[in-house]
Write a structure and sequence with these properties.
By secondary structure, this protein is mainly alpha-helical. It contains 17 helices and two strands. The N terminus is likely disordered.
Length: about 400
């Protein structure tokens, strides 16, 4: 009788989480990341074997560890891609705070691992580099603060995020880690630009960064040595850049053949910073172009999907995450072909490294979460509501 008078109540059927995730996720970007990880394992089979032999370890020791860390990274990516934008904001804030505290403790508890820069915590069985996890958290925090400026009575988000950026860059510079410092500044500038900053302000900030870099050049022997090596007219063939450049030239279009490359026997960082040289030597320009296309797929598709977003935080955070992901890849490959000074930066999902792999997984996971298809509403509806 009640149903006859009032009508039956509609029952809302909730879509299963996995089904909704698969329906809304950017499958092309997901596939590109999985292919990058597969290429990383393939290159690791060649690049890390000489290192294992030099260290007296089992032949595929580093390949197995890369597969283990990569599996953790992929799980982290999938899980973080399932969360909502509000949860991305919370995850980014917690990640930033934990990483910031860890970086502040590095001068007292950190290790340089014999590389002259205190960037890691060594636990014997593994090492952790806090700056890798700081980047995505910092981008999300900056986007949150800048998006809050548009709210009535909102905080001075641009100023607060700028102060935080200065502190973060200072902590990175004292390690020293100038590559991550520049990537952090770049990410902040992307978020600031998308938030509505004029090009004049952005250029002014970049000019100030250049001035600070000039001062650091005269104060830091570590930085000066790398800049001088990059600017030198003659490239030392026995340097890392010399070996990498020669390997890329030897590879040509189709490579010298699987396992026939020599750069992995001479470069100590062939499995990390110069993994693209191994790819170019053994598989040639073809594989390098495929790798470039995969990174481009993730970045370009993400930016196009973000253009449809109405939520300012989603647009800002997504653009920042996509750009630092692509920029890190470009910096790594740019160093290998001597377009940039040596930075000590890994190639996301391809290079060996626990911290870099897991951090890349979290970064892309949050990016995939922000670029998932969501009901946006029509723009004219939004304008009509504002006109009331």
């Amino acid at each position: 009788m009640t149903e006859m008078v009032y009508g039956s109540m509609p029952v809302r059927v909730r879509e299963p989480v996995l089904s909704r995730w698969w329906r809304t996720i950017d499958k092309w970007s997901l596939a590109a990341v999985l292919m990058l990880f597969g290429i990383g394992i393939l290159l690791g089979l060649a690049a890390s074997v000489p290192l294992a032999e030099r260290n007296g370890l089992e032949q595929f020791y580093y390949v197995k560890r890369q597969a283990l860390f990569g599996s953790v990274a992929l799980v982290a990516m999938i899980l973080s891609s399932m969360i909502s934008p509000d949860q991305v904001r919370r995850l980014g804030l917690v990640g930033f705070l934990l990483s910031f505290v860890a970086m502040a403790l590095l001068p007292f508890l950190g290790s340089d691992l014999g590389k002259g820069a205190i960037r890691w915590f060594s636990f014997g069985f593994a090492t952790v580099q806090p700056s890798e996890f700081l980047k995505p958290g910092f981008i999300v925090l900056s986007a949150w603060l800048m998006a809050a400026v548009r709210e009535v009575g909102g905080p001075p988000g641009r100023l607060i995020s700028f102060v935080v950026a200065v502190v973060v860059v200072f902590l990175l510079a004292i390690q020293p880690d100038f590559g991550q410092s520049m990537l952090t500044v770049f990410g902040w500038c992307v978020v600031y630009f998308v938030a509505g900053a004029s090009m004049a302000i952005i250029l002014g900030i970049l000019g100030a960064v250049g001035g600070v870099g000039f001062l650091l050049y005269g104060m830091s022997e570590h930085l000066a040595r790398r800049i001088d090596g990059f600017l030198a007219a003659d490239l030392d063939p026995r340097s890392q850049l010399g070996y990498a450049t020669n390997a890329i030239q030897e590879g040509g279009f189709f490579g010298v053949g699987v396992g026939a490359g020599q750069v992995k026997w001479t470069l100590p960082d062939a499995h990390t910073d110069f993994i693209i040289a191994v790819a170019a030597e053994e598989y040639g320009l073809i594989l390098v172009l495929i790798i470039l296309a995969l990174y481009g797929t993730v970045v370009v598709r993400s930016l196009f999907r973000l253009m449809r977003e109405r939520d300012p935080f989603v647009r800002l955070a997504g653009a920042g995450l996509a750009c630092i992901f692509g920029a890190q890849a470009m910096i790594n490959m740019g160093v290998a072909v001597r377009l940039l000074p040596a930075k000590g930066m890994t190639l996301p999902f391809v290079s060996y490294g626990g911290s870099s792999l897991v951090a890349a997984g979290i970064t892309v996971g949050m990016l995939l979460a922000l670029t998932r298809t969501r009901p946006q509403g029509r723009m004219e509806d939004i304008l009509f509501r504002r006109g009331r």
